[in-house]
Every structure is written in structure tokens, then in C-alpha cells.
Amino acid sequence: MKRMISFRRLRSAVALLASLLAVVVATASPAQAYPRDWGYLYNQASAWCADLPDTGPVYNTYVYEHECVRDWLKDNQLWGFQAVPDVLPRNRDGSVSQAFVIRNGKSQQCMDLPGTGWVAKGTQVWMHDCVPNTGDNQLWYWDRSPSDHYYELRHLATGWCLDVDGWGGQQNGQPLTLYTCSKDETWPPGASEDDDHLWSVLGPQ
Fold first, then answer.
1. Which of 87, 92, 113, 173 has CA 20 to 30 A from 99's CA?
2. Segment 94-109, tens digit of pLDDT
């Protein structure tokens, strides 16, 4: 009899946990308009992914783009987007976004910029120990773009976009930098407004 009661209690506890998870998912569902929390950071223009050198944990290195290898064991391209509570920047259309750090799945370090505030346009993104608050220069947020499936990935302190250096195209080892999200006098004639700063997050293959 004691075993039967214990089993019933366990079953009741599991049912309660499932109901609580359902509430959490339902509450969080509006935020799912933005990409997933873990995945492979994919550039629309180049069709390649954000990457780190080699295939194992590497530290304090710059971030590049590379042909996508959507296999966590074979490369260094898996990223997590860890929300920072109470940091809620405004998108260009006035809607509220969510700030986060971008953490590499193997090194557990985060995408970072030098210092703790404004940096020059064209500054290369690198990796550093994560500081998930406004005391460093590691906060980012998704901003809506004209595309339904791609987003601008904006750096909180500058408002500039994560960008592939240059003007589109595929090239292994091309650095990821910050650059203006809209055309200005530094853009070459005929350059696309989207250029190569629109991103999505893909799951494993």
C-alpha cells in the first residue's frame, strides 16, 4: 500500500510539473517572434555562420564567419543567447526587445567589444569572459527588419549592427565587426541597404 501511495504522489507531482511548464511556455510565447535561444548564427547575405577558430574551446579570440557546420561536435559555431533581465531596449518601430549576451557553446565566453561603451565603427568582435549586465560591452538585441525571417543584431551600447566585414560574399575567416545599420556616406554606391547584417538562428542539421 505504501508503494502504491508513493507512486500516486509521484504521478501527481509529474502532472503538476507538466502544468507549470505549460504555463511558462504559454507566458513566454510572445517573445518567440525572435530567433531561438540556442543555435547557429546564420548570415543572410553570405549564407555562412559565425565561427571561432579550430573545433574545440578557444578563448579570447576574434569572431569570424565560415561555411556553416551545424554539428556541435565538429566545429565551434553553436551559440546561446542568454537574456539579461530588466534590460529592454526599444526597436526602431517602438516595440520592446530583450537584451542578451551571445555565449559560445564550447568556450562559454561571450561576444564582446573593447571597453564598456561606445566603440569605433568597424571594430572587430572578440570573445571574453561573460559579464551579463550593463557593466561591460557584451549586450545585444534583435531588431526587426523588413524580412520575416532575418533580424538585425544590434549592439546595445552603440546601436550598430553585427556585420560581416566588407560588402557581402563568402570568404572563410572574414571578421565580424560592428557597422552602421543603415546607409551612410561610407557605403559604396549601389550597396544594398541590407548588406550583410541580417541574421537568423538555425538549428542543427
1. 173
2. 889 999 999 999 999 9
Tell me what the mean pLDDT of segment 10-34 comes to. 37
User: Which residues pair with residue 110 across a beta bridge?
Assistant: 103, 128
Distances (CA, A) of 159 to 59, 115, 121, 195: 26, 15, 11, 17
Q: How far apart are CA 132 and CA 198, in angstroms?
A: 24
Quote the Cα angle for 34-24-70, to 5°: 45
Find cell 557605403 and name the residue.
Answer: 187
DSSP secondary structure letter of residue 150: -
Could you read off the pLDDT of 67-84 as tens digits, one per residue?
999 888 889 999 999 999
SS3 content of the chain, % helix, strand, coil (to 5): 15, 30, 55
CA 15 to chain centre: 34
